[in-house]
Amino acid sequence: MTALPQKLQQLLDKGQGPAARILDKMPKIVQESISKALAYPYQYPELDAFTKCIMAVQMKQGRSGLIGADLVQSRREFDAQMLSIVSKATFVAEVEDIRLPLQSGTLFARHYHPAPNKKLPMLVFYHGGGFVIGGLDTHDEACRIIAKYAKVQVLSIDYPLAPETSPQLLIQSCEDALAWVYQNRRQLKIHKNYIAVAGDSAGANIATVVSQHSIGKPYAPQAQLLIYPTVDFKSKHPSYYAYGQGLVLTAEDIAHVTGFYAEQHDVALDDPLISPTYGNLKKLAAAYVVTAGHDILHDEGEIYSHKLRQNGVKVQYVNYVDQTHGFINITPISSKAKRHTIEMAKNFKKFWDQHH
Predict the structure, then answer these.
(1) Catalytic annotation on 211?
(2) Quick one: which of 7, 3, 2 has its CA closest to 23?
(3) Does residue 104 have an active-site annotation?
(4) Residue 355 annotated in active site
(5) What is the residue-averaged pLDDT of the chain?
């Protein structure tokens, strides 16, 4: 074992956040040598060197993937992991936890307003986590960055998780939350009724399924921000085989999510309720679709963007080649992931302005 990983080990013992931030500042060549010394076995030459290091460290610690068979443990670990990397939160003028009294039951949500005295557009955000983990706190920093740099209000929805909740009820509660925002648009000071939906991973799936369900309804969103969306439970594309191991999201995770979200509730894998790529794609709101190059879900996101375009939907598709799944969650430790997330927020707002 070389001296480098030992030094890194000492840092890691102090906590993931501080160690990762020091690692992030190291030159690429040093990062590459650390992942080699830690014997990271995967050949991903274009993968961001910092991400490679983090993956190598996790493998050394015997950790892999996000979602195991024990959901209680997966939830606890994800919450703890997100907490361990937090540094100083991005400043947003007003952040408030609110209750949404919906027909489907009370939901909690977190409202971010970067300029409380101004009328601003509203982005209704559904967090990722395979429909089974995650919450308001795990995605707090990502929502802050989007609110600040897109100059929009963000309402992050604490929807009920599977498998305790069926896909039907989960989607219904998320659609009800969107309808509530529309009904309360005056109180929320929403500029010109500008309302969009957004989400990452499973949250992007929810955003686009809700978009499909609300076509023709008064509260239908005017834009979609879909960040590395999962849209196809049925098909396995090349990226599934290329990036199924040694990264943030693994083939094993996909198998567990499919069990918890689809199979336990007897939902067919090609049902548009869970696989929007097979749904009605006509008359959907303009979609800004983001994928990560090194992501098991890369291909289904890209294919979905092409399908939307073929159905007459306005689309902007962006692929961050050097990133892996989940990059919007590591902005406190990765300067590159933060740059990408800021750029995405700004460019999505430009896109939305063009197509509202």
Answers:
(1) no
(2) 7
(3) no
(4) no
(5) 94
